[in-house]
Amino acid sequence: MRDLFSIARKEIIIALRERLVVSLGIIILLLLGVALYAGYLSYSQQSRIIAEKQQEKRQEWLGQGDKHPHIAAHYGTFVFKPKTILSVFDFGLDTYTGTSIYLEAHHQHEFMFRPAQDHSSMIRFGELSAALVLHVLLPLLIIFLAFSSFTKEKETGTLKLLLSQGVSYATITWGKVLAYGVALVVILAPYIAGMFILATFSVSSSFIPDVALRTILLVVVYMLYIFIFLSLAVWVSLRSATGRNALLTLLACWIFLVILMPKTVANLSESFHTLPSMRAFKEAIQNDIRDGVDGQTPRSVRRGKLEKEYLQKYQVDSVHQLPFNFEGVSMQAGEEYGNMVYDIHWKKLRDIFHRQNRMGSIASIFNPYLAVQHLSMALSATDMHTAIDFEDKVETYRRELVRKMNNDMAQNSRYGEFYEYKASIDLWNEVEDFSYVVPSAFEILQYYKLEMISIVGWSILIILLLNYSNRKSKPIHG
Amino acid sequence: MYLLIIKQFIRSKAVILTTILILVLGLISIFIGNQFLVKQEKAIAEVTRHQQEHIERNVSWIDSDMGLLLYYLRFALINTPDNLTALSIGQRDVNSGIQSVTIRTLEGQKYDTDLNNPTNLQSGNLDFGFVIIYLFPLLVIAFTYDLLSEEKEKGTWRLVAIQSQSVRGYLIKKLSVRAALLYLALFVLFAIAILKLSLPINEVLMAFMALSILYLTFWLALSFWIVSLQRNSSFNLLTLLSLWVALAILLPASVNNFVANQYPVPEALSTMVKQRDGYHEKWDMEQEVTMNKFFAHYPEYQKYPLPEGNFSWLWYYAMQQMGDDESRQQSEAMRKKIMQRERASSAVALFVPTMHTQLIFHDLARSSLDDHLKFLDQTSAFHEKMRLYFYPKIFENASISDVDWKQFKPEYFADKPDINWARSMFPLLLFIIGFALWSIINLKKLKVT
Question: Which residues cross the membrane (chain A) (predicted)?
């Protein structure tokens, strides 16, 4: 044990002498600071705009004056996607998902204004987030730090010296891993501490209730990630004859895992599972609403059926004699039919999304970078599944809003009158303001089982590899 | 001498392997570009077919009410991609190249996007531009980082120094062999791209190729400069890779953050809201209020009397018009902000070769923001044209059968990229010359022992 610590201490001292390593460490520190600051700026900017607009919209909805409920349903309202406090850390997909949606009767509008649309094409280089610094740059620092951990000892002959004094390979290896681990944690400590403080004090953001838990999980995920890369680097160094070879191998791995593979997988998933164009998608929905899902029950037939049904039910001869406005009932029925058609097509589309993302999840088994990238977004609530959850809840809200308008029209107005009937603020008040709470971390992590298996699996694999090589390495080797 | 250097160079397994790797990735990128073109063509064919069917169907259903018919009819404007777009897809996936608009309020329609998986948008396209900008520099680094240090570390440097007249000349020869292989790989890929994507051989393509060559040369010069510092292999490799990370990932990403925070675009939301309000609140107002504003915009329509009653198409389309008229200010402010972002980015890019090359690639391939903004302007003009064509017909309730509906085929927009050779090439040239001269000076002090 004492050997382990003295080896670790020696490693740290040596690492501190390397100018390149120290300067890279400082650069990473600075970058993390800058990234978090920039993330915070855009978070507060966006949140302010969104909160303001949301408030404004609510006031407008309430203060729209007396009008026919159906006109109000078309007047509709807007919902804006809130930013989570954790998006300061990982921007995730926020740049590429729409930020606002217009809610109206009959139509499911799309989310509009993906922030990427307002940028020059340079945005495709990516943005500097703390997550990017951690999962792209930190492995590089680790490589720079550890590639020569064994090769240098071999080249200078100190390895033989150590071994001859009875220190085992295992002690040396773990001593080195410990040393670099400590060095990195020291570098990251201020930020980890910062995140904990953030996590415990910012419970104010009501729509992401489990910030503290998410933060802890984030720290765990990144710790494992650092451990995987660190051990990998030490292992490669142990197995390589020269420092140059170790460096080349590690850098090749980094380029493959971090740059090439993620992009290739995304592009391949796009080729294997092609999305329809927006036009084809909408056309299919329109066709089904027009002609019926079976292609044989057009709108007029459906309306006729509904009319007959109601006339029978209430034992009257014409819709004028019904005790409520049939127009409202019919409109709600049409709305529900449209929703049903929309759900069918939306599900098909979602399936393609899921199949595309599934390829990324499968690839993450072979690539801890992908696993951590996905988990990091998931925990920061900036991932695909949180976005989908948000869209679903907005759509539910829209349906509720429209239903209330149609019901009111059915209950309180007479058949055939449109401009005469006006609803008032009491009805507008019945529609609650939209409020969103993200799913809990555990709910979201359900979608990321493969990714979790991946990082745990890699951690175990790398421990086994190191132990195996420690036992196999001969003292005379090198 | 050359022969020996070439032999020694290509005997290395790593060299052959990495060259094959980049060729394969290049091929994949060309394939992905081709897929993009096929998808675009399919979409264009689809919209052409759809528009025809859609107009025919609606005209046959709604045979007497022009106002109602035009409520539904959509007319498409297509931003035709060049074949060159396949090499550098840029923002073409985020921004839709097809607009299909009704003559109602435009602002609510023109920012519609196509269906995309945000995960894939975030990863971006593995297009040929990516291969050139990210991967070729890595190959340059792999080929050249140990140009000099290798000889020193293997102990062959003294032999070389004794046998050749000029050690500097020897190094330059070594470099040129490596450069030749890189250029060759680049040309092979371009040749394949030209054949596979049937790229027209024109000035734009020449500019694209010239820029690629310069960009590659920039990395060769940078790499050679690091070599000329005469440090060991590991130092060279680490430094070059750090430079690569800085130029290809860190700097562009930081500039993006800076630009985004410096020029926020709250107007994007307010335009949306304003256009909706501009139209919707008119339902609750006296018809005259709307009509007065409408006639002030289009005095030529004053001759149409407002029909009696609760509703008329004249009033309805005047309300729709108000959506655009009253959000114009926000819309223009938004455009200005976006232009500011574009300008700020390209100004910074002059000093960062990776960003500069990427932006010029997108300009040439017409996949830039600038191109999309022009397309949006064209969309407004197109929309106005359709509006003005149909307004009188609606207000007079002209006979639907009198209109030749067959004439409404999708229209095309294709902007010619203007090539600014000086601005495109000069920054890179300057960097190349700078690093080359600096290297030569460094190598003057070349020590043999």
Answer: 20-40, 128-150, 177-199, 211-238, 245-262, 447-468
